[in-house]
UniProtKB/TrEMBL annotation:
Keyword annotations from UniProtKB, A to Z: Ion transport, Iron, Iron transport, Membrane, Metal-binding, Transmembrane, Transmembrane helix, Transport, Vacuole
Its job: Vacuolar Fe(2+) uptake transporter.
Keyword Methyltransferase: no
Similarity annotation: Belongs to the CCC1 family.
Positions of transmembrane segments: 166-187, 193-211, 223-245
Name of this chain's protein: Vacuolar iron transporter
CDD domains assigned to the protein according to its UniProt record, in alphabetical order: CCC1 (cd02435)
Length: 247
């Protein structure tokens, strides 16, 4: 195996096995995370706002105006937050990459010892990992990549990730935020529209929660009810507070 690594290729027989074996892993985790963040807040915050304004006896037109303004501001804020988060991750990776590069040049023996230590943690014996360590020392780029992944636990981020995250979160927030506002566009009296809004949004939260649980590997049914409960509590609190302040 070490000979194959040192030559930088896999023999034809093993390559044939790899070509005929397709692993079905879910690889869109970052996109799903963005959608979860955007839709979750998009469904909950405007829903609570609309319920609160309805409790204060506002008209449907006021609820729509305030709701659309909130959705716009929320989408911008959430999108910016996603952008800054992804940008910070990329900046952190670059800083650690530069530091690791300098250490490989300045203290190669120490870094090689760290490679050996990492492999030993997986139960690899000294006579087994010695050829691997030597092979990596001959390939600085592969060595650097190994240290970033296995010592620091960092994967190279997609350079487009920050903008993609901002768009995904903002767009998802808008989609989620429009759901609780739809009834107010067709029912003039807010006190009647809030009932329809609550019903539609709870159903949307149940569907979203189920999908979230399915894609994140959690129990879908439990996730559905938890998500719907959070939205219901938030809107009920907003409605109740508005009723107390503005009977």
């Amino acid at each position: 195996m070490s000979d194959e690594i040192s030559r930088g290729f896999v023999d034809p027989e093993k390559q044939s096995l790899l070509n005929h074996h397709t692993e079905k892993h879910f690889t869109a985790g970052e996109i799903v995370r963005d959608i979860i963040i955007g839709v979750s807040d998009g469904l909950t915050v405007p829903f609570a706002l609309a319920a609160g304004l309805s409790g204060a006896n506002a008209s449907s037109s006021i609820v729509i105006t305030a709701g659309v303004a909130e959705v716009a501001a929320g989408a911008i804020s959430m999108g910016l937050g996603g952008y800054l988060s992804a940008k910070s991750e990329a900046d952190h990776y670059e800083r650690e990459l530069k530091r690791e590069q300098e250490e490989i040049i300045s203290v190669p023996d120490t870094e090689a010892a760290e490679v050996a230590e990492i492999l030993a943690e997986y139960g690899v014996e000294p006579h087994e990992y010695a050829p691997v360590v030597n092979a990596l020392r001959k390939r600085p780029e592969a060595w650097l990549d190994f240290m970033m992944k296995f010592e620091l636990g960092l994967e190279k981020p997609d350079p487009k990730r920050a903008l993609q995250s901002a768009f995904n979160i903002a767009f998802s927030y808008i989609l989620g935020g429009l759901v609780p506002l739809l009834p107010y566009m067709f029912i003039p009296r807010a006190q009647d529209a809030v009932v329809a809004s609550a019903a539609i949004t709870i159903v949307a939260l149940l569907i979203f929660g189920y999908a979230k649980g399915y894609f994140t590997g959690n129990k879908p049914v439990k996730s559905a009810f938890e998500t719907a409960l959070i939205g219901a509590v938030a809107s009920a609190a907003a409605f109740g507070i508005a009723k107390v302040i503005h009977p």
